Amino acid sequence: MQNLNTEAAVRERYAAGARMTETKLCCPVEYNSDYLKVIPEEVIQRDYGCGDPTRYLREGDTVLDLGSGTGKICFIAAQVVGPQGKIIGVDMTDEMLEVARRNAPVVAQRIGYGNVEFRKGRIQDLALDLEKLDAQLRKHPINDAASYLRAGEVMRELRLKEPLVATDSIDVVVSNCVLNLVEPKSKRQLFEEIFRVLKKGGRAVISDITSDEEVPEHLQNDPELWSGCISGALTEEGFLGAFSEAGFYGIQVLRRDKKPWQTVEGIEFRSLTVEAFKGKQGPCFERNQAVIYRGPFREILDDDNHRMERGVRYAVCDKTYNLYRKEPYRAFFEFVDPRDEIPLKEAKPFDCSRTARRHPKETKGYDYVVTTEASTCRDGGACC
Length: 384
Ligand SMILES: C[S@@+](CC[C@H](N)C(=O)[O-])C[C@H]1O[C@@H](n2cnc3c(N)ncnc32)[C@H](O)[C@@H]1O
Known about the structure:
Order of helices and strands: HHHEHEHEHHEHEHHEHEEEEEEEEHEEH
Number of strands: 16
Bound molecules: S-adenosylmethionine
Oligomer: single chain
Strand content: 15-25%
């Protein structure tokens, strides 16, 4: 059983890391140097990331950076998303927030707009605004059982009425080398929180340190290794599985470092960048649509347990049809629309628990008996 107070160890280590560069926490990452030019040296020096999720952002995105540290990822993201986009950095360490907030106006002045803000919170509890809680506790300090119970009530109210990050409000959640630092008992809640704050159709792009084997207990109880992004690492398999358990779909490894960042007692710790989408939940309706998996694999299984063979025409509900038409699936499918469209408000429920073939007559209509001449060939030559 793990018996270390991991959060205290992490806070202490990163408070020190905000004041002075901690070389042991640095992992070599190649960022786009154009974006670094406007970022003050103090921020660049206190870079404790292990990947670059900002490569996968788009103009106009609203982005949440979990464990934003001194703000480097937020300041790069600010330039990628442009003035129409917005960046929120969340960190629990006052010293990190102080450096990030002090440098935000400098970056804003250099790029010509300010679209970054930093908020204080724990990433496994993104509803609780720790600065608002600090203010309440200054007014009503905890000094007996009654005030302790009242504080619990204040926290509930704050989460509900003034959440740090609102539900369904974010296009992309990014994070760089932080999720491993969250205590094991809160890891599940952490992934649920990422899911909660994302809009339907939003995605997470997370870089983190992962291990190729389970981390044994004696390493988990080492405060130096814990705060050093080693002991709290999920296995590569566990990391992907955590997204799946939280309800994400289309989960994929965007980057896996070949060379381990560190090896401890034979266990390899390396950076992984993973993308995962929110939005497969919801009702299923029959609109006579079909999809054909193009290959190259003989068959595939999606996150809703649809198993599909290459080249076969399958019946799918309207929701699955529309999910497949977007990233990350789009390139893998052919889409067959029905000849007569069924308006959504007239569509009947579709049973998504089974995967059934769709006969071409279902999409064309059983009364379809047309015979046509051969189509004109594009280059004036014969088609066959
Ligand atoms: C390894 S550093 C990474 C900082 C930053 N992402 C970067 O790329 O430089 C980890 C950061 O996460 C913060 N942190 C760790 N655990 C946290 C938690 N549970 N909630 C909020 N912030 C946390 C620390 O204060 C620290 O700033």
